[in-house]
Amino acid sequence: MRKYFQLVIDPSLDKFCHVADYTIEAFDLTLFWKGEKIQDPIPSSVKLFVDKKTKNMPDLMGNPLSWLLCSKRLIDCWYDYINQDVQIFDAPIYQIQSNIKVKNYFILNPISCLKSVNLDRSTYIGDKEDIRTITEYYLYNNAIPESTNIFRPKEFKQEIIVSEKIVKISRKANLIGPDYIECHTDL
């Protein structure tokens, strides 16, 4: 049986660079939470600021917007397995001290949404019509196509689920930042 994992940011990354501030003006920051294709480019008024006093740059960068901010290295590792299920945008990340753009970071927007959560067995906060968070996942394995390696559950689109293949690739490459919580699977 295939295995799936919640994608989370490694909580031990406090010594690594992260987004410390941002400006978004009128841009809807929730666009990257919905699992929908975004038609327009990110406006130039959107800026994410990092304090690069630390030289430690992670492959998955923590940020208060809950966006998937990924290094080029992470994108290169995952690309062949996820390219049909995501959009990739250049990340508007800047050094807070100098306003110089930080290169080789991207926003990953998973656009594959699958009705895949067994709500009768999963543990969550809220009710079935208004789920606030899912703390323990039970996924219907047969609802997830074999070729899918990254997706958002339709039941809670803010979450991102990845396949065991992605986890193995990430660990082999020693990617810094991504962490994984294994989901239970039902047939």
Protein described:
- There is one protein chain.
- With 187 residues, this protein is mainly β.
- The protein is 11% helix and 36% strand.
- It contains two helices and 16 strands.
- The protein has helices at 72-82, 164-172, and strands spanning 4-9, 19-23, 47-50, 60-61, 68-71, 86-90, 93-95, 105-110, 113-114, 123-127, 130-136, 138-140, 150-153, 161-163, 178-182, 184-186.
- The strands form five sheets. It has a five-stranded mixed sheet with strand order 9-13-14-1-15.
- Helix 1 (72-82) runs antiparallel to helix 2 (164-172).
- The longest helix has 11 residues, at 72-82.
Largest sheet, in brief, is:
5 strands, mixed
What is the molecular shape? Answer: globular
Mean pLDDT: 94
Q: Spans of 5+ residues with little confidence (pLDDT < 50)? A: none
Tell me the number of strands: 16
- Percentage of residues in helical conformation: 10-25%
Order of helices and strands: EEEEEHEEEEEEEEEHEE
Helix tally equals 2
- Beta content comes to 35-45%
Instruction: Describe the strand arrangement of the main beta sheet, using strand numbers.
Output: 9-13-14-1-15
- Structural class label: mainly beta
Distance between the termini: 9 Å
Radius of gyration equals 17 Å
